[in-house]
Amino acid sequence: MPKTASVTPRPALATDLMTSLGELLRQWLPRQRWFAGKDRPVSELGLLSMTELFPGCLHLLVRTGHGGVPGPGGAPAGDCYQLLLGVRKNLSPRLGRALIGRAERGPLAGLTIYDALHDPRSAQLLLERLRHPGTAGPLRFEGDPSVPVPAGLPPRLLETEQSNSSLVYGDEFILKVFRRIQPGVNPDLEVPVALAGQGCRRVPAPVAWFRTTHPQGATLGVLQPYLRDASDGWALALQALASGDDFTVQAHELGRAMAEVHLALAAAFPGSGHDDNGSTAAAMTERLEAAAHSVPALRPFVPGLQSAFGALATCDSGPPAQRVHGDLHLGQVLRAGREWFVIDFEGEPSRPLAERCTAQSPVRDIAGMLRSFDYAARQRRPWRPEWARRCREAFCGGYAALAGWDPRKKHGLLRAYETDRAVYEVLYEARHRPDWLPVPMAAIERLAVRGD
């Protein structure tokens, strides 16, 4: 087996490390699914912190810059990313997909650099850190002492498309390693902990996590139970479409489950009050204008879409604002047996963390799920709009049965939030999956022209 390189985090090494890694990371980062700046060149790259987790594995927080080019909605041009880098003289062929490159200069000259999350040895040592709370430089490893985590669980890295990286350990636990880091407690830790305190069984409770204290406090990863026999809602919906089966019973049950989660969220984070529809409409309009600037195909529909937001300012205020999921769709729910579970409370990764933690209308989550039914229906040709319509009705019916209010009777709110979600989807697909752009654009045309 190739030997790992012991890299002691001496001050001189930390200072010079980017001499070895800078050019390699500039080439590698934009190719990663979780990198947010694919449409902007990485012109600046800086090291924020470096810790040797164990020999041959470096934990880095790096700041990327884009030469003053603003991010989405005029956001700051830089982002912070978490990297776990393996360092070896030679790389085993089985780790070929993890290769970043060979350092030519600096303290790591002559060594091979790779993404350590692909390496079973590194993944197992990371779990050991989580099993034994403690510190490593600015890193803090913590957990729930009432839930033991066995040693020696074999790891596997999930290869599905996502904005973070996930490791499954022995089909018992799953570790989400956040890639794009923002200061503060990540809602994917904060919310499940709070829901567990409410006795809500729809969300797996965290058993361990790790964070950093430098350069600012931030959540880096969360370990939760893994639902080994579960299937995500997206896969189940596509299976139903492929076989010509109806999905309304499952959609109705999913609506009830989501209402249960919303009720638990309202109890866990009380005192939110009503949303300010005027401010919400202004924020939606600002996001629309920024998206239209980036995606020319959106521009002809801007006047019609703005009408949806204008109506929001004068319509019924709807249910009280509260903590919500923030990025709800069929890929964020799992069905195990006859039960639905909700996962991934991180919210839309492109939005600032503070915004994702604020109280919002629960209609935002409902609109996200309704859009997801449409996404699923459009994966089959010929398109089956009636399948999506029936699922939407069933989901709202299930939600209304438990929540005490019916989303279908909040037409102005629902149209505005669906429109805002579709605008987000257009921007996302244009940046990450251009072949999918016609799916949200079809909704944009419907929402702008017909006002549905």
Question: Could you characterize the architecture of this molecule?
Answer:
Helix content is 39%, strand content 19%. Helix 6 (277-294) packs antiparallel against helix 7 (302-312). The protein has 3 domains: 1-118, no CATH class; 136-226; 231-450, Alpha-Beta Complex (Aminoglycoside 3'-phosphotransferase, Chain: A, domain 2). The radius of gyration is 23 Å and the shape is globular. It has 12 helices and 16 strands. A hairpin with a 2-residue loop joins strand 6 (134-136) and strand 7 (139-143). The strands form 3 sheets. A 7-stranded antiparallel beta sheet has the order 6-7-12-13-10-9-8, with helices on one face. Strands 1, 2, 3, 4, 5 and 11 form a 6-stranded antiparallel beta sheet that branches. A 3-stranded antiparallel beta sheet has the order 14-15-16. By secondary structure, it is α+β, with helices and mostly antiparallel strands.
Number of strands: 16
Instruction: Give the low-pLDDT segments.
Output: 71-76
Structural class: alpha+beta
Estimate the helix proportion, in percent: 25-40%
Q: Widest sheet: strand order?
A: 6-7-12-13-10-9-8
- Taken as a percent bin, the fraction of beta residues is 15-25%
In CATH, the topology of the largest domain is named: Aminoglycoside 3'-phosphotransferase, Chain: A, domain 2
Please give the radius of gyration in angstroms: 23 Å
The span between the termini is 61 Å
Order of H and E elements? HEEEEEHEEEEEEHEEEHHHHEEHHHHH
Average pLDDT, rounded to a whole number, is 90
Helix count, per DSSP?
Answer: 12
CATH C-level label of the largest domain: Alpha Beta
Major sheet attributes: 7 strands, antiparallel
The CATH H-level superfamily of the largest domain is Aminoglycoside phosphotransferase (APH), C-terminal lobe
- How many independent structural domains? 3
Shape: globular
| CATH architectural designation of the largest domain | Alpha-Beta Complex
Protein name: Maltokinase
Family: Belongs to the aminoglycoside phosphotransferase family.
Pfam family, one: Mak_N_cap
Keywords: ATP-binding, Carbohydrate metabolism, Glycogen biosynthesis, Glycogen metabolism, Kinase, Nucleotide-binding, Transferase
